[in-house]
TrEMBL record:
Keywords on record: Membrane, Transmembrane, Transmembrane helix
Top-level taxon of the source organism: Bacteria
Protein name: Cytochrome c7-like domain-containing protein
Gene3D superfamilies: Cytochrome C3
Lineage: Bacteria, Pseudomonadati, Planctomycetota, Planctomycetia, Planctomycetales
Domain Cytochrome c7-like: 51-93
Sections of the chain in a coiled coil: none
InterPro entries, sorted: Cyt_c7-like, Multihaem_cyt_sf
Residues passing through the membrane, by range: 12-34
Alphabetical list of Pfam families matching this protein: Cytochrome_C7
Length: 214
């Protein structure tokens, strides 16, 4: 009986199968790379704001404490945004005629709040409480990065669930003394110090679904 398939048919079949597997893996790797890229997560992307507020100047240069503007960060889930009166407490005397602050003066005069663009924002189905993280010794820079070096604010991390879980799985790598939570530049605690802080603050970072989704 004559041979139906060419002698190279087996080799071609194996090559096709392996090729399909490699293509599938390559496609998955490409999708993962895109989903975690700055383009997709908007990390390190500066967003337009009504006023060019420089954290580098106010935090790094002038040394303002985070709580001066974000007054509820250690008390409530939402860190809070400063009322125009907070801005004008300084800028009624400093740079009071600057064109860059025209919208601030207008807001103060009319009583209409400035509409800031949220930079670090989790989806609506995620609950994040600033106060509990501050109370447990998680510093601002852990999530927001070195804002004292940011001329214009941008998101530092992807905010993907994996990024959150990386911290919750190893909280001892991120905890610091409560007195240092609002400081930017700090040396990492030693493993012994971290262990003591975890025990002192009773730090139990939950990883079950209902901790963040409810």
């Amino acid at each position: 009986m004559a041979q139906v398939f060419h002698p190279l048919a087996n080799a071609l079949a194996r090559t096709t199968i392996f090729g399909a597997v490699f293509i599938a893996l390559g496609l998955l790797a490409t999708i993962y790379a895109f989903s975690t890229s700055d383009y997709a997560t908007q990390a390190h992307v500066v967003r337009a704001q009504p006023v060019e507020f420089s954290h580098q100047h106010h935090v790094g240069g002038l040394g303002l404490d985070c709580r001066y503007c974000h007054s509820t960060v250690d008390k409530q889930a939402f860190a809070g945004m400063p009322a125009t009166e907070v801005c004008m407490s300084c800028h009624s005397q400093i740079w009071s005629d600057s064109p860059k602050l025209a919208k601030v003066r207008e807001s103060f005069k009319t009583g209409k709040p400035l509409e800031w663009t949220r930079v670090t924002d989790v989806p609506d189905y995620v609950h994040f409480d600033h106060s509990i993280h501050v109370t447990k010794g998680i510093g601002c820079a852990e999530c927001h990065g070195r804002v004292d070096r940011m001329q214009m604010m941008s998101r530092e991390h992807s905010l993907h669930m994996k990024w959150c879980l990386d911290c919750h799985w190893t909280p001892e790598k991120h905890v610091r003394p409560r007195s240092d939570v609002f400081k930017m530049a700090l040396a990492s605690p030693t493993p012994e110090e971290s262990k003591e802080l975890v025990e002192k603050y009773r730090l139990k970072a939950p990883t079950h679904c209902s901790a963040c989704h409810y």
